[in-house]
Amino acid sequence: MTLELYPASAHNAFHGTALQYPHHIDEAVQQIHGACQGLGTDEKTLISVLGSKSPETRNLIALRYKELYRQPLKSLLKSETSGDFGRLLRMISTPLPETEAQILRDATQGMGTTESLIVQILSGRSNDEMNILKRTYFDLVGKDLAVTLNSELSGDFRKVVMAVLQSSQVPYNPAVHNAAKAEEEATALYKAGQGRLGTNEEVFIGILVKAPPEFLKMMDSVYVAKYNNNIAKAVDKEFSGDAKKSLNYIVRSTIDPYPAIAEVFEKTMKGFGTDETGLSTALPYPQYPPTGQPGYPPPYGAAPPQGNNYPPPGGYPPPHQPQYPAPGGFPPYRGFT
């Protein structure tokens, strides 16, 4: 499925629609401003105002704060908070397109982000949201995103990234995307990969990134029936390194994103201690089925992890609804400033 990540106000701002700020948005802005006045910062108020809000409300708060005080909200919070707590507040108080544009910028400037995170941000996007992200990146960096990534990346991973960035996903049309077409495309995918000596990367990647989610599911069923393994396993056999991780993520998150979403939460809370930065990175994203509701998949069960690793030390406040992360199995981003 295609996940709509950006709140409605981000779409409205991009298309030039005038934004309306309800009274509670102005109240929240005043509370934040007041919490940062005087000696010391009222962190409890910041938690209360920002921690329980939806992505749409937080986006409006960030936009309104800048309008009223001529300063980005994230800049205020950077001067008033520190550590993992400060990073969390800055991320959830920055408009999501800007957050992602900054992550992409850092990923091409040696700021500690794994290259694989690039595909986590770019894949699964509607065409409209891809355009929002490209415009935001240009406004932030002053460079075209495609030109930058093409010059900075290499190998099959570059082919994956450029295909995702430049190939608009075809809208699903039942009259076109039928069983016969699914068999045709599944066969073409096999012939570009497992059915030949050497992989035709451009054809293989192009088929995957252009297929609408409903159609990719149909293709996967055909592929299993004809070739005794699914498309994700075919990717694993034909690619390696970041290209394999990225394409595998594209397939998994397109066909059924929830296991990938759950996997990220689990990985941040496994082992010794909690990956607080990983959890912080998860919070800016839109709401999807929370733990214990339909959609949270096995093997993780119906309850969040318990014990010493959850919640994080210091007690991040739980959001009103769990927020889903940039999903996938890659290391968490640590460069947001």
Automatic annotation (TrEMBL):
Coiled coil: none annotated. Residues 286-302, 310-330 have a biased composition (Pro residues). Keywords: Annexin, Calcium, Calcium/phospholipid-binding, Repeat. Pfam families: Annexin. One of its GO terms (cellular component) is cytoplasm. InterPro entries: Annexin, Annexin_repeat, Annexin_repeat_CS, Annexin_sf. Gene3D superfamilies: Annexin. GO terms for molecular function: calcium ion binding; calcium-dependent phospholipid binding; phosphatidylserine binding. Residues 278-337 are annotated as: Disordered. The keyword Coiled coil does not apply. Belongs to the annexin family. A pair of annexin repeats may form one binding site for calcium and phospholipid. This is Annexin.
